[in-house]
Every structure is written in structure tokens, then in C-alpha cells.
Amino acid sequence: MKQRLLGQGAAIALLFAAMAVQADSPLQMIDPGHFNIDQDEIGTIREQMQAAVDGDHIAGALLLVGNSDGIGLLETVGTQGPDDDRAVGTDTIFRIYSMTKPVVSVAAMSMVEDGLLSVDDPVGDYIPQFSQLEIIDQESGETRPAQQVMTVEHLLTHQSGLVQSIFATGTDLGRMYEENVRTDGSMTTLEMAESIGGLPLLFEPGTAWHYGHSTDVLGAVLEVAAGQPLDQILNERIFDPLGMAETTFYVPAPEAHRIAEPIHGEMADNTEVRPMLSGGGGLNSTTEDYVRFATMLLNQGEYEGARIISEDTLAWMSEERITGDVSREHFFYGNRGGWSMGFHLQPVDEARPDGPMNIGWRGIGGTLFVVDHENDFFMLYMEQKRGGPQGAPFSNNIAQRMVYEAIAD
After folding, report:
1. What CATH homologous superfamily does 103-226 map to?
2. Pairing with 143, which of 8, 34, 188, 263 sits 20 to 30 Å away (CA)?
3. Residue 4 pLDDT class (50, 70, 90 cuts)
4. Residue 208 three-state SS
5. Is the dihedral of CA 183, 189, 195, 196 positive or negative?
6. What secondary structure letter does DSSP report for 59?
7. Where in the chain are the domains?
8. What is the pLDDT of residues 12-21, one digit of tens each?
9. Are 347 and 337 in contact (CB under 8 A)?
10. Within 10 A of 282 (CB to CB), how many other CB atoms are there?
11. What is the 3-state secondary structure (H, E, C) of 384-408?
12. Is 174 helix (H, G, I), strand (E, B) or coil?
């Protein structure tokens, strides 16, 4: 009985969602069977999502699966925040954090297509502080001149040697970042990059993968190359053509009532406009907006007649960049999958680790998107969480696993 009611509830939710979307919305509903997902599986997914809310792990969440034909799964649970009785919806605004990185990476490659920069360009050509780089010995603290030149491609692939204090806690280099790089938004994009350029690198560019401020520095490179601020670059090259009107670095105050907030942990006030336009993690977006971006990637760089990057460029971006001569010591997934120029690469079938890969990335606040060309779908999961109790019955990892299990079943 309970499973049947869940199925009926999901069907009703889809009906109302279909009635609510505008004709030009990317959220046109189609039968979930299009993705080989049935109502029992949807009910199980929703039950797990609701358990995360009931267990006070999150205030609310949204999960979506779709492709260029439409949306086959759209489930929402809970509210926008612990003190908010408004239900999570497709117009709820989330801090997407590192899901900013793929957006900025695509913008960079569109500028490469236009001849405004090259992936082979030295970063020092745009930001002089990167012209005389040094490498730090983490054991002795001593530095030596770098032998390799840091390029734009190293920023795209996270092989720059740059780190971030949160990923270098307790080390000399981590303390240098804490002391010299202000992360409170008071620096401009270029000022932050210039400060980072004065710090030593963890390793020679191109020899290892390490997460950090690479895409923040990339944003500054784009500003110098284009002679425009980063928000204007993204508006002109991505957001305006795709109709992503509500993807911004700062949320207009009148729209503050739509912002999702976490139960656990604190997130900065994203209505307070500050100098920083963080290419590494500064964007806010809605589900509907990011669906447009994901659809563009699934459609090989085009959405509703708007060509953002060429099919060849997207294929080039999606190639494995953690080659055999690049250390995986700090790669989040060890030997599973890899990294491209802006996206993760993860197997679409865990039984075939060397088989087809999906692309995507996640945000530290709980969001995730995946684009799977092999199986012709994208997935988007939205929540806001920073810390809290372990063992949540639903999360971005669980969402991805359950969606793949449903599609493969």
C-alpha cells in the first residue's frame, strides 16, 4: 500500500510540475520509462530522500533526470531551509560552489575558439606574478625555482601546483595560503590571483593533480584576456545564450526568499555583493538554469539553436588528462576515472572501469551534476549541507548510485 501511494504521489507531483512549467522551460515532463525508470524505483528514491529530511540531515533536496527530450524524474522533498516553510522547487536558488568550475572552463574554451587565448599560453603572460614560480619542499620548507612553466591548460586540469588551504591543512604551504589569500570575498578576482602567484607551488606544473585555486586563477586569466569582468564574460558567452537568467555570483536582495539554507554548518550571505567573482566556486543557480547548461553539454555544445562551444572542442575538453606520467596521489577518486579540462571523468558502469565515462562535477554544499553521453541522460541533485551527522540516508553520491541502478535495472 505504501509503495502504491508513493507511486501515486509521484505521478501527481509530475502532473502539477508539468502544468507549472512555461512553454520555453527545459523542464517539460516525459514518461520516466524513457530512462528505464519505473514508479516503484521512483518511490524508493523519494523515500530515501525523505528519510534524509526526517533525520535532520538536510532541510530539503531535489533530484532530476532528463535529456533533450524532457525530464523523466523530478523529485523534491522538504523545505528551503530549517526556518523556512517554502518547499524546495525548481526555482529554489542554491549555492553551487565548485559546479562553477565547469561553467568557467567552458567559457575559457569558447575564448580559445575565438582566439583570445590558448591552452598553451603561460599564465604569467596574463598575470606577471606567475612568471617567476618556485616549488616548496614540504619537509624542509625550502623553495627552488620551478623548471616548468604553468600554462592555461594546467589550470583547467588542476595540474598547476596550486592548492587551497582547506586541502593543505597543517602544512607550511597551507599556512601561506591562510595568511596571504583572503577568502572572505574582499579581494577582486585578479587581486586574489596575484596573491596566489606570489606563493610557491606544491609541485612542478604538469606532474600531478591537486585540487585548489586553479579555476579561480583561470577566472582572472579570462578577465585579462577578454578585458571584461568574469560575470560579464559568463553572461555573454553562456548565460544569455542559454537563458540562464538566474545564475549569478550574488543573488538580488528581492530574491533572498528563494535561497536554500543548510541545517548544519554556515554558508556565506550570497546577497551581499563583494569584489570577488570566484571562478572556482562563486555561482548561485537554480535547477532550471543548470538543466540548460547540462542539456547543452549533452547536446555536444548546443542548446535550442545556441552554439556555446563546438562539438570538437567539447570532445577535446572531455579527454583524460591524468596520464601515466601525472601523479594521482591527491586525486579524489584514486585510480577510478580521471579528470579532463574542467570535468570529472567517471565510469558509467562500475564493472567496466576502462569503459565509457560520464562528465560532471559537484559542489561542497551537496550539489552534483552528471552528463552521460553513453546513456543519453543528465542528472542534477541539489541540496545545501555543510557538515552535520554522518550516515545520511541520501546524498549526492547515493543519488547517483540509485539513478544508475534504476536505469540499469
Report:
1. DD-peptidase/beta-lactamase superfamily (3.40.710.10)
2. 188
3. very low
4. strand
5. positive
6. S
7. 1-57, 103-226
8. 444 444 444 5
9. yes
10. 26
11. CCCCCCCCCCCCHHHHHHHHHHHHH
12. helix
